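A.,

Following up on our hallway conversation. Structure tokens first:
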């Protein structure tokens, strides 16, 4: 008797393998915000460090303050006057370098970007209700002039501190002084040592006498109000004091403390 073959069992839908469930890839709103800020921070650090490295070797063509002053004059209906030329530090009088150290930042060659004693004195002076005075170093002023806007908010001061650290590490003292003397406001529409010496004394930046250099340094708190020549008695007293303090600065050595 021949064996009969059993029919193969029919495949049911239950025996079919189920497709793998798709993983949800949609991020929540919180995750999107988090990644946005991470990317924003990475861009900020990359651009800020890159710009500081770039300007270590390339002259700074203009600063935010120069643009702001031009806009202010335009809105006030005044003539837009702008005088700025880059001058290598080797061609800037050592007298001017000593004068700005004596008047603006006596410990410039020794601090790491911040003079905490000067900040403490400024805080106590302002707290007593006296005339507002600042404690910013040349390094801080340079960071603000080149990379930031004018203002007194904590946010801007925080950015100023950040850029101050960067230029102290990447530029060093000599480059900071070179950029400072080529970017600061030294008169109404007059920026940098080259333009200032031509404007005030009709001579080049390498030939300034001690008193002439002190004249430029003396007006830096408000260069649009004060004059380096034909000065008021207040500025003349400042000049004399700066000349005396220049002697205490001594020989400038940017490569060693």
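Then the amino acids I'd put at each of the 257 positions:
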């Amino acid at each position: 008797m021949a064996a009969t073959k059993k029919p193969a069992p029919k495949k049911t839908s239950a025996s079919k393998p189920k497709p793998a469930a798709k993983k949800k890839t949609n991020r929540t709103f919180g995750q999107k915000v988090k990644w946005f800020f991470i990317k924003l921070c990475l861009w900020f650090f990359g651009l800020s460090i890159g710009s500081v490295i770039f300007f270590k070797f390339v002259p700074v063509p203009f600063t935010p303050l120069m643009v702001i002053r031009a806009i202010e004059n335009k809105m006030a209906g005044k003539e837009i006057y702008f005088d700025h030329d880059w001058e290598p530090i080797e061609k800037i009088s050592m007298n001017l370098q000593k004068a700005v150290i004596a008047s603006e930042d006596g410990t410039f060659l020794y601090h790491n970007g911040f003079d905490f004693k000067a900040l403490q004195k400024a805080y106590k002076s302002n707290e007593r209700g006296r005339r507002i005075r600042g404690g910013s170093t040349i390094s801080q002023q340079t960071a603000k002039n080149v990379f930031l806007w004018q203002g007194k908010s904590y946010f801007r001061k925080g950015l100023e501190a950040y850029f101050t650290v960067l230029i102290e590490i990447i530029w060093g003292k000599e480059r900071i002084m070179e950029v400072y003397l080529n970017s600061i406001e030294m008169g109404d529409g007059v920026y940098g040592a080259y333009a200032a010496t031509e404007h005030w004394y009709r001579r080049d930046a390498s030939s300034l006498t001690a008193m002439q250099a002190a004249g430029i340094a003396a007006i830096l708190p408000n260069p649009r109000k004060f004059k380096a020549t034909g000065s008021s008695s207040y500025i003349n007293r400042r000049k004399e004091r700066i000349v005396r303090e220049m002697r205490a600065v001594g020989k400038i050595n940017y490569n060693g403390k």
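Strands lie at 83-84, 185-187, 190-191. Curious whether your intuition agrees with the design.

B.
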